[in-house]
Amino acid sequence: MTGEGTAPLMTVLGLEERETDVFVGQTPSTQQQRIFGGQVAGQALMAAGSTVPAGRGVHSLHSYFLRPGDPAEEIRYVVERIRDGRTFTSRRVLAHQRRKGEDVAIFALTADFTAGEQALAEHSLPMPDVPAPGELPGIPEMYERHPERAAWMQAMGGAIEQRFLEDPFEPRAKTPPHTQHRTWLRVLGRLPEDPAVHAAALTFASDLTLLSAGVARLGVGWGGFVGASLDHAVWFHRPMRPDEWFLYEGDSPVASAGRALCIGQIWTAGGQHVATVVQEGLIRSLAG
Fold first, then answer.
1. Is the Cα torsion angle 222, 38, 59, 261 positive or negative in sign?
2. Catalytic residue among 207, 243, 251, 252
C-alpha cells in the first residue's frame, strides 16, 4: 500500500446526491485549471454505481466526451436506470454543466454491471517483462529534468503516482512490432474498501497516458502535440486495487484523419490481466 492516509483522489470521486439519481461533482483547483477527461468518466461511473444493487460490479463502460468541461462550474450527473435484470444491470449517465444560462451536456456514459458467473474457461494476455516501478524515475525526477515542461505534472502527481519506463518528454521513435507505450501507475494513499470506488479510480487513471501511444512511432513526447479524448471504453476483467502498482501498456493500431485509435492493457504488479481500455483521440500538431 502507499500509506495510511485517505487517497487524495477521493476529493474528486466523492459526489453529492442532490436528488434521486442526480449527483454533483466538483473539479479541484489546479495549475492547468481544466477538467481532466478521466475525472468526468470516474465521477460518472461513481454516479452510476450508486444506483446499482449491492453485489454487482461494473464489467464495462462506454463513453463520449461531447464538450470541453468548465472547471469553474459544478458537474451534474443524471443517471437513467436502463435495466435491472436477473444477471445484468445497465445504467446511462449524462453529465451537464451551465453555459451562458443554458444546461448543456458535456459527457455521456453507459455502464453495465454484473454479479458474475462461473467461468467456462479463463485466459488472458501475459504481462510484459519490464523493470519494477521501484527501479524507475517518477514525476519528481521528470520535473528535475524538465522543470518548465513538467510543471503541470505536479498537480496530477498529488493524486496518481507514476513510474516511467522512458522519458515521456523525450521518447525514442518506435517501429513495429515494438510500438507499445508503458507506464507504472498507482493511486496515492488508501482507497476505501469498496470495489465501486476501485473501478472508478482505475477509470480516472486509464485516461492519463493512453494517447501517447498515438504518437509513439514519431518519437513525439508530452508537450509536443495536442491531444483530446473523443471517446473512452473500459472492460473490467477482474477486481483490483488501483492504490497498488499496476502496469499500463498502450498501443495504437491505426491513426488517420487527425485521430488515433489507442488500445490499453492493464496488469497488476503480480501479473494479473485486469482491464482493457480503448480510446480514440484527436492528435494535433502544436503548430496548428
1. negative
2. 207
Catalytic residue among 229, 243, 251, 265: 229
**Residues 14 and 42 sit within 8 Å (Cβ to Cβ):** no
Which parts of the chain fold into alpha helices (H)? 10-13, 37-49, 139-145, 153-157, 195-206
Is 154 annotated as catalytic? no
Q: Which triple of cell numbers denotes residue 88?
A: 445484468
Grid cell locating 84: 435491472
What is the phi/psi pair of residue 38, to 5°?
Answer: -65, -30
- Residue 283 to residue 259: CA distance in whole angstroms: 6
Contact between 195 and 264 (Cβ < 8 Å): no
Q: Which residues neighbour 190 within 8 Å (Cβ) at sequence distance 6 or greater?
A: 1, 2, 3, 4, 5, 6, 7, 243
Contact status, residue 211 vs residue 259, Cβ threshold 8 Å: no
Expressed in percent and rounded to 5, the helix, strand and coil fractions of the chain are: 20, 40, 45
* pTM of the predicted protein model: 0.93
Tens place of pLDDT for every residue, the chain, 288 residues?
444 588 999 999 999 999 999 999 988 765 454 688 899 999 999 999 999 999 999 999 999 999 998 888 999 999 999 999 999 999 999 999 998 889 999 999 999 999 988 888 899 999 999 999 999 999 999 988 988 877 777 777 789 999 999 999 999 999 999 999 999 999 999 999 999 999 999 999 999 999 999 999 999 888 888 889 999 999 999 999 999 999 999 999 999 999 999 999 999 999 999 999 999 999 988 755
Query: Can you say how many angstroms the Cα of residue 206 is from the centroid of all Cα atoms in its chain?
Result: 3
